[in-house]
Amino acid sequence: MAIASTNPATGETIREFDALSDSEVEEKLATAARVAREYRHTGFDERAAGLRRAADILDADTDTLAATMTAEMGKTIAAAKAEIGKCAKGLRYYADAAPAMLADDIADADAVNASRALHRFQPLGVILAVMPWNFPLWQVIRFAGPGLMAGNVGLLKHASNVPQTALYLEELFRRAGLPEGVFQTLLISSGQIEDILKDPRVAAATLTGSEGAGRAVGETAGAQLKKVVLELGGSDPFVVLPSADLPAAAKTATTARCQNNGQSCIAAKRFIVHTDVYDEFAELFVAEMAAQKVGDPTADDTDIGPLATEQGRTDVTDLVDDAVAKGAKVLTGGTVPDGPGWFYPPTVISEITTEMDIYGEEVFGPVASLYRATDIDDALRIANDTDFGLGSNVWTTDDAEIERCIDELEAGQVFVNGMTTSYPEISFGGIKNSGHGRELATFGIREFCNVKTVWVGPTGKNE
Predict the structure, then answer these.
(1) What are phi and psi of 306, to 5 degrees?
(2) Which residue among 87, 258, 265, 449 is the active-site one?
(3) What's the pTM?
(4) In terms of C-beta distances under 8 Å and separation of at least 24 residues, what long-range contacts does 98-102 make, across chains too?
(5) Are residues 328 and 375 in the same domain?
């Protein structure tokens, strides 16, 4: 893929960029390695001050940066502004919370025959971040915030269709007064990732993206014995049981499916409804989905903008068309609109069978698959019948059902009577083909730390 900003609402190319040459990549690597040796010795106060200044800059740049994000990948202007605000909050959160998260973990010295025993959290060094286009700012910040507070240095390989946002991120940390080279953007092709990850100056990697990309990066990292965190795709279930508040569930389900124009790994995608309330929920849900306004992503009243790429829309269309050809029923949407841009309408389909591609594949667009479950056992069976395990949602007011779903849903996250989202304060990640490792919270900041065990024997004093 060419490194270019292309407006998905019009199909017009805004600006093209040249990939870095091998010598330019080498210069970036050398800088990162040098800075990593120095930056690890900075204190939390200095790091935190830089993150707080970066948050202030994001606040000040909100309007222009949101316009850039919308132009590059089509998210609505309201969603872009909300994402920027979330990033500023995340930076301030880690600036405040990181010192306690990375304080020495004191162990029982007597139990191990020591005068002192503890775990110390120290940075690994240069971390390669391979990031996607769908949340072009937040995906990066949720790595960069904890990573920089831990004393690591970042190299960003962003998606090729959001180069302006990628370059802004490097400039953001420079403007915030962090050391030159502590966070660098690499405008490179995906084919250049392997050699960079193999470079001994790169200590570890984190990737958010497709299952295929995760397998490729994971294989390379494994061969080099390097740590890697993978956040891959999802086909999240949204389970609705008889005691649920159905109007609230239907409204939330629509937001959960259509957020970011339907292009989110943690968007609810499979809506599994108990037969006793299936018809009522389906009527409410279809009405909510059909009412979503599709159009110009720069307009304040637009609910759903275009898909980010032409190929992305083709992939969504192919999955829906395959399902319909094999007997699925379209309850709303399902037809590509006329006109420029890569728009796709909010769509609900039902009567899905295992022979349809959509049953097992992630749909990266505003398409909801509706399933009827005979009881809670059947609902859990359908929910878990997927190779993915990122997020999950359940709607019920029955305490026993809540506990059972928390225990039995096979996912990295369970949200009850709400939609799956990410917060700096709680961990984020999945199981099965959705990846491994965790981002955010204490778990996330420690992923790229050396958890160093310290044992100090008797000193001879006062013995």
Answers:
(1) -75, 160
(2) 265
(3) 0.97
(4) 98/44, 98/47, 98/48, 98/146, 98/149, 98/150, 98/445, 99/44, 99/48, 101/442, 101/445, 101/446, 102/44, 102/149, 102/150, 102/445, 102/446, 102/449
(5) yes
Q: Number of structural domains, the chain?
A: 2
CA–CA separation, 80 vs 62, rounded Å?
9
Structural contact between residues 185 and 158, judged by C-beta atoms closer than 8 angstroms:
yes
Q: pLDDT grade, residue 2 (50/70/90)?
A: confident
Same domain (yes/no): 228, 241: no
Q: Which residues lie below 8 Å from residue 13, measured CB to CB, with a gap of 6+?
A: 4, 5, 6, 7
Q: What is the DSSP letter of 418?
A: S
CA dist., res. 350 & res. 373, Å (int): 12
Nearest to 231 by CA among 196, 262, 205: 205
Phi, psi of 123 (to 5 degrees): -65, 150
Q: Is 231 known to be catalytic?
A: yes
In a domain, 421, yes or no: no
List the CATH number of the domain containing 391. 3.40.309.10
Mark whether 83 is an active-site residue: no
Judge contact between 412 and 116, C-beta under 8 A. no
Q: What is the CA radius of gyration of the chain?
A: 23
pLDDT per residue as tens digits for the range 403-433? 999 999 999 999 999 999 999 999 999 999 9
Given the residues 170, 231, 401, 447, the one annotated as active site: 231
**Token duo for residue 309:** 């790429």
Shared domain for 128 and 214, answered yes or no, is yes
Is the domain of 282 the same as that of 219? no
Average pLDDT over every residue of 152-174? 98
Structural domain harbouring 132: 4-232+434-455
CA-closest candidate to residue 224, choices 268, 194, 183, 252 = 194
Residues 161 and 262 in one domain: no
Residue 463: the pLDDT is 46
